[in-house]
Amino acid sequence: MKRNVIITGTSTGVGFESAILFAKQNYRVYATMRNLKKADALQERITTEGLDIEILELDVTDTQSIKKAVETVVAKDGQIDLLINNAGAGFAKTTEQATEEEIRWVTDVNYLGTVFCTQTVLPYMRQQKSGQIINITSVGGLVGQPFNELYCAAKFAIEGFAEGLATYVSPAFNIKISNVEPGGISTEFMATAIGKTAVDGKFATGEYLPIFEKYMAGNQQRANEGAEQVYQTGLEVAQVILNVAQNENPPLRIRSSQWAEDFCQLKTAADPDGTKLVKNITASFL
Length: 286
Prior knowledge:
Layout: E1 4-7, H1 13-24, E2 28-33, H2 40-49, E3 53-57, H3 63-77, E4 82-85, H4 100-128, E5 131-136, H5 149-173, E6 175-181, E7 184-185, H6 189-197, H7 209-230, E8 231-232, H8 234-245, E9 253-255, H9 258-263, H10 265-268, H11 275-285
Parallel strand pairs: 1-2, 1-4, 2-3, 4-5, 5-6, 6-9, 7-8
Helix pairs in contact: 1-8, 3-4, 4-5, 5-11
């Protein structure tokens, strides 16, 4: 019997590439997205390549939508083998200039969506005494960055959530938890971030503007000097996710490129994959 997988945020980017890659590796894929009007590109690949992918509607900010999608999968297959919490959105703006609505939105999409999707699949995985949950976080979940503090905070929250969860659901119920932490990804991600968060085409105004301009100049310089080292394609990140899914003893956390590894080195040097810490915490408390 094929392992099945639910992937959130599959209309573009890493989620899109993951859905196709996992299907080609003989998984039964449930590719979910908030807006089914964006399903045309994936549906075309399904049709032309004969892929075992079913597209479902799932809005990670709506718990009823999550529940409906998960129940659909269970009704069809009787179990859930793998959840990939991929849905997320970039956000870059100063804390002072972000609105309450924006702060709640970036938290809902990038953190609470992961929590609620995980909460919904856990009873099924616990009952079957097996399962795997892979969260797509970011180097921003380990290292805070200018103008990205609200986004980073949401990704930091996923890191803590996964770390705590892994200390007891993994040994007790054989549910494996992992975070994949990409650096830059050459997809629509940043374009979406700019469209969602910029003020008159900028992330910052007033006294913050000179700092923002320096930040952007540095980004551009790094991109010009070595874009191929910083930015991965969605498919490259999807391959890392697949490797984690096929690992009998997957790490708690893994960076998806050498650039990401180097970027986070000061935070991760003592325990690069998080495995030591989880074992120590489990031994201390349980």
